[in-house]
Recover the amino acids of this structure.
């Protein structure tokens, strides 16, 4: 860790020789110590610095399940948090599922009457209304009881979240959360909840479904405004992939 007045190591200063002393000093104090990291930090590129969504554990399984639900017109419910991460994430899922012609609804729990996360009463209500697939946004990783109840009622749950789990993970159909498991394969851990949801959208589009050919290639970029708002509002680190999402959003 560098303090304000520490001199930069000569090797690192040589790596950052393209930048003046002030810029190099600021970069180093943000953990940027190589030419490649400096380029990515100062000039984030959608083509070069966005990771393949299928690198995330369970992503292939989740994308296939969402595509199957779109194809068969199953009732999908997007269960999102009520903050400025969950709401943009739920909105981008809404826009994607509408574009895809899915049979879906959005559910946002009441802050005071239901509280944060997925709850059993809400699950039971959705089951009565015909939901067979729930996609959480910015929540779900600690909701073991509610996810178990969903499974009992024949509902598959895909958890998309970025919060830390408890000792026991929910028994979900798929868990998309770079911070949930030690064996996680995704190279970037600091996405916000909407960022993880956006990665799922990218994966479903790449997987394909009936009517996919009607959606222009690259259409997912139109959802980056929502992902970008959530990235800023949820105060996740503006490093790596988050810088790309914030810039293009």
């Amino acid at each position: 860790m560098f303090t304000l007045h520490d001199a930069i190591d000569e090797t690192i200063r040589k790596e950052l020789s393209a930048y003046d002393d002030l810029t190099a000093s600021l970069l180093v104090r943000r953990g940027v110590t190589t030419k490649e990291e400096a380029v990515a930090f100062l000039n984030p590129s959608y083509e070069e610095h966005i990771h393949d969504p299928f690198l995330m554990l369970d992503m292939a399984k989740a994308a296939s399940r969402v595509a199957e639900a779109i194809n068969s017109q199953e009732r999908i419910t997007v269960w999102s948090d009520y903050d400025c991460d969950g709401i943009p994430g739920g909105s981008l899922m809404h826009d994607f599922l509408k574009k895809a012609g899915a049979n879906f609804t959005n559910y946002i729990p009441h802050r005071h009457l239901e509280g944060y996360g997925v709850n059993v009463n809400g699950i039971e209500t959705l089951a009565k209304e015909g939901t067979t697939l729930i996609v959480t946004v910015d929540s779900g990783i600690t909701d073991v009881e509610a996810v178990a109840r969903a499974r009992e009622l024949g509902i598959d749950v895909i958890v998309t979240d970025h919060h830390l789990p408890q000792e026991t993970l929910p028994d979900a159909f798929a868990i998309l959360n770079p911070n949930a498991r030690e064996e996680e394969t995704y190279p970037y851990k600091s996405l916000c909840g909407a960022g993880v949801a956006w990665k799922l959208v990218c994966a479903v589009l790449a997987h394909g479904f009936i009517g996919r050919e009607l959606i222009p290639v690259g259409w997912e970029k139109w959802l980056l405004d929502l992902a970008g708002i959530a990235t800023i509002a949820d105060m996740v680190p503006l490093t790596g992939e988050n810088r790309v999402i914030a810039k293009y959003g």
Notes: The longest strand covers residues 131-137. Strands lie at 75-80, 103-107, 131-137, 156-160, 174-176.
